[in-house]
Design a protein that fits this description.
This protein has 6 helices and 8 strands. It has helices at residues 2-29, 76-85, 97-100, 110-121, 144-147, 172-192; strands at residues 42-46, 49-54, 57-58, 63-65, 90-96, 125-131, 155-157, 163-167. It starts with a helix and ends with a helix. The protein is globular, with a radius of gyration of 21 Å. By secondary structure, it is α/β, with parallel strands linked by helices. The protein has a 3-stranded antiparallel sheet. The protein has a 3-stranded parallel sheet with strand order 4-5-6. A two-stranded antiparallel sheet has the order 7-8.
């Protein structure tokens, strides 16, 4: 049995190394078309090869994703040692609408600022996951002022005509409120990470 596990592990390692070589080789093949070091991350394609470029160079993302409950400043110090231990260079972290706009029109980006600062200190890149109107169809990450105002932000209606806890995808008010918060988040990120 042990031989089989080692054999499987060796095959997985060989496949991983082959993918890495392919990625690096593909990156080298398109280096001539590389974006500048000041450009935003992008996928560059040349001769059928694709590569993610970050800071003007091919970037192999070795990513991890934190638990949804890790998107609070007090929990972040527990995240970085794990990211370092697994040798990840990128981490996906949720940012909840309720965090950035707890009261309508009042934005608080302190968590995002803390997250970016700690990621930089730990030399880890970020992929931010927006948890807005829905996350797995549920409104858990929408702010209370949205969840509690069913007249302005209507819920879905079931086949039997009963209101459901999920926010309706047909509400212009919900769309505009979520969009406004997301745009404010993007504007803030542009300010702190030009």
């Amino acid at each position: 049995m042990r031989t089989s596990i080692c054999g499987d592990r060796s095959r997985r390692l060989a496949a991983g190394l082959a993918a890495l070589l392919l990625a690096v080789g593909g990156g080298a093949a398109i280096a001539a078309d590389a974006p500048s070091a000041n450009s935003v991350p992008r996928i560059v394609t040349r001769d059928g090869h694709h590569a993610l470029f970050v800071d003007g160079a091919p970037y192999l993302m070795l990513g991890a994703q934190v638990n949804n409950s890790s998107n609070y400043p007090d929990v972040l110090p527990e995240v970085w040692p794990t990211i370092k231990r697994i040798h990840a260079n990128t981490v996906e972290v949720p940012v909840a609408w309720e965090q950035v706009e707890p009261k309508e029109g009042q934005f608080d980006f302190s968590f995002v600022d803390t997250l970016v600062e700690q990621a930089r200190a730990n030399k880890v890149r970020l992929v931010l996951l927006w948890f807005g109107t829905w996350k797995n169809t549920g409104p858990a990450y929408a702010p209370e002022w949205v969840k509690l105002d069913a007249k302005r932000f209507p819920k879905m209606i079931t086949a039997s005509g009963q209101p459901h806890y999920v926010l309706s995808p047909h509400s212009r008010n919900t769309l505009e409120a979520d969009k406004r918060a997301f745009v404010k988040l993007m504007e803030h990120i542009k300010q702190i990470d030009p």
